[in-house]
Amino acid sequence: MNPVENAVRRLNLRLHAMLEDAAGVSMVEIELPSDDQTPAAAFEAAIDLHPGLAEWRGVVAFAVETRMLLPRTTIPSDVRTLDALPPVSGG
């Protein structure tokens, strides 16, 4: 078995606004398995560490710098920090 295939990837998930309040921290270091490196998987890993985030499952948006990522899109390999954004409303 190739060790690269089983390697985990570490990245930081930066939590904004209400997500930070729910977790009690602004940044979570997470590990993702090689077979699921999506923003949705990153958020699930954060929920495992900070269960207060569970209420936000399915409504969080994800971004890398100025680019939005869909929840089931593979996170680009050069990304070390992913931003999790709560829903916004207003005019």
CATH architecture assignment name: Roll
Query: Could you state the CATH homologous superfamily?
Result: Beta-grasp domain
Radius of gyration: 13 Å
Order of helix and strand elements from N to C terminus: EHEHEEE
Q: Per the principal axes of the C-alpha atoms, what is the gross shape?
A: globular
Low-confidence stretches: none
How many DSSP-defined strands?
A: 5
Q: What is the overall number of helices?
A: 2
In percent, how much strand structure appears in the residues?
A: 25-35%
What is the fold named in CATH at topology level? Ubiquitin-like (UB roll)
Number of domains: 1
Distance between the termini: 54 Å
- Summarize the main sheet: 5 strands, mixed
From the structure above, extract its key features:
five-stranded mixed sheet, 2 helices, Ubiquitin-like (UB roll), 30% strand, alpha+beta
How is this structure best summarized?
This protein is α+β, with helices and mostly antiparallel strands and 91 residues long. The chain is built from two helices and five strands; from the N terminus they run E-H-E-H-E-E-E.
Give an account of the 3D structure.
This protein is α+β, with helices and mostly antiparallel strands. The protein has a single domain, classed as Roll (Ubiquitin-like (UB roll)), CATH 3.10.20.30. The chain is built from two helices and five strands. Strands 2-1-5-3-4 form a five-stranded mixed β-sheet. The longest helix is centred in the middle third of the chain and has 11 residues. The protein is globular, with a radius of gyration of 13 Å. The model has no long low-confidence stretch (mean pLDDT 93).
